Amino acid sequence: MSKNNGKDRIVKLKEEIKIINLDFPNKTDSDKSAAINRLIFLLNDEVAGIRRMVANALTSFCVVEDIQLLSKSLAKDESVWVRRLVARILGNLGFAEALQPLSKCLAEDEDVVVRQQAAKALGKLGNVDVVQPLSECLAEDKDAEVRRFAAWILGDLGFAEAVQPLSKCLVKDENVWVRRKAAEALGKLNFDGVVQPLSKCLAKEASEDVRRGAVEALKRLKTVEAVQALNKSLIEDASAALRRRIAWILGDLGFAEAVQSLIKSLAKDEDENVRREVTNALSELGAVDAVQALNKCLIDDASALVRRGAAKTLVSLGSIEAVQPLSICLIEDISEEVRREAADALGLLGFVNAVQPLIKCLTDDASALVRQAAAKALGMLGVSDAIQPLSKSLLEDVAVAVRHEAADALGGLGVVKAVQPLSKCLAKDKDAWVRRCATDALGRLGFIDAVQPLSKCLTEDPSAVVRQGAADALGNLGFIDVVLQLSKCLTEDPSSVVRQGAAAALGRLSTVDAVLPLGKCLTEEEAGEVRYNAVDALGELGFFDAFQPLSKCLIEDASAGVRRGAAEALGKLGAVDAVQPLSKCLAKEKDAWVRHFAVKALGMLGFVEAVEPLSKCLIEDVSEEVRHEAAKVLDRINTKKL
């Protein structure tokens, strides 16, 4: 048949179905039967589009009285295609009257796919009466795929009556995938009696795939009884992969009843991946009863992977009893990764009795990665006993990463004694990364003793990154004595990145003396990024002395980004005088984004003097976004007036 002929027939059939739909309620019973038989006949058409159209039509207008005609076709039509489609139609219709013909079809039809469609259709009927024919199919059908369909549907239906046939199938069916589906289906039936067949399956089933299905089913049940079944399988199952999965499930379910079996598995399981998953599960459960077993594992387990897992879990449990075994592990373990994990764990636990082993590790360990972890841990503990060893590492350790971590740790101790070694590092360390970390640490410490070394670094260090760090640190210290140094850096440093840092730092000093150098920067600095930081700093300072340079910058600066920053800064000044330059910006500025920020700044100021320029902007501005913002600001100002 040609494609065009098929298309023509589809168009004609569409019209025919439309007419049938319109006239169907008024037809006599014989006429209705004729129409339905006509459509059923077309279910066998060689054109797939026609078959689909007919199936949809029958589903849409058939009523319960028509079940008999469809049932007759389902039982007697010679065409497999027709029987398949009729079975699907009966399921879609959802009438209880379809139970008998679909059950008969499921039991007797010779075609596998027809029986599958009948099983699906019975599932769509959704009432408890379908359990019996599906159960009989599950027990008797010769085709494994049909039986698998039946098991799947029984699980989805969710009736207690399905427990017994599914349990029987789980034990007796010869096909692995049918038994697997039966196990999964039982997991959807949360009724008494479900755990027993699943537990028996775990104990006696030869197929790992079926046992996995039983494990997943028990996971779905989420009951103490299910956990007890999983506990037994965790110890006894032959498959390491499945035991690992069970360990994960026990941790995820969160029942305390799993702890003892997990502890036993940690001690006895031969597979390191299972034991590692057990440590994770114990962590998820918060199993403080497992601390002793984890401590033993940390020292005795042959697998570095498992020892690392034990260290991680001990941190989550937070017990002081873990400090001693972690300390032994830190000093004696042959694995660099395990020692590193132990150092991290001791820092995170936060007990001061870990300080001495961490100091020994920092001094003696051959691995730079482990020493780095020890330095970090000492910083986390935050005790003054760590100053000397951290200072020694900062100044003498051959590894850049260790010196960097030591600098960061000293900055977190919060004691003035840390200033001297950090200052010495700043002057002598050859690595810019370490020196930059020292500037950050000095800035965090907050002591005036750091001003002199940081000021020297700001002018003399060869690295722009380090000089930028020094500028940031001086700003963080907040001592107004450094205005001169930062102002000089702002005008003289060859790196725009450093000058940006100096501008930002001046803005954090909260002194009016910073206004003049920042204002001068706005007129003399070539780099737009630096000028932007300068206007931002002037806004943060909030002194009226910044009004003039900001106003000039708003109108004259070549960079739209800087002008936008100037508008925002003027809004932060809170002075009525700022209304005039912002209004002028609204009238003359070509960049819509700058005008948008000028409107926002006028809103921040909130003065009634802004009403006139904002009203004009609302009418005349070419940008919808600017007009929208002007309307919002005017509404706030008017509300404030009221």
| Tally of DSSP β-strands | 0
Question: Are there runs of 5+ residues with pLDDT below 50, and where?
Answer: none
Q: What global shape is seen?
A: flat
| Terminal-residue CA separation | 81 Å
Kindly state the percentage of residues in helix.
over 70%
Largest sheet: none
Class from secondary-structure proportions: mainly alpha
User: What's the number of helices?
Assistant: 39
Can you give the mean pLDDT?
A: 90
Rg measurement, Å = 40 Å
Beta fraction:
under 5%
Describe what you observe in this structure.
This protein has 642 residues and is an all-alpha fold. It is built from 39 helices and no strands. It has helices spanning 3-23, 29-42, 48-61, 67-76, 80-93, 99-108, 112-125, 131-140, 144-157, 163-172, 176-187, 195-204, 208-221, 224-236, 240-253, 259-268, 272-285, 291-300, 304-317, 323-332, 336-349, 355-364, 368-381, 387-396, 400-413, 419-428, 432-445, 451-460, 464-477, 483-492, 496-507, 515-524, 528-541, 547-556, 560-573, 579-588, 592-605, 611-620, 624-641. The longest helix has 21 residues, at 3-23. The radius of gyration is 40 Å and the shape is flat. The termini are far apart.
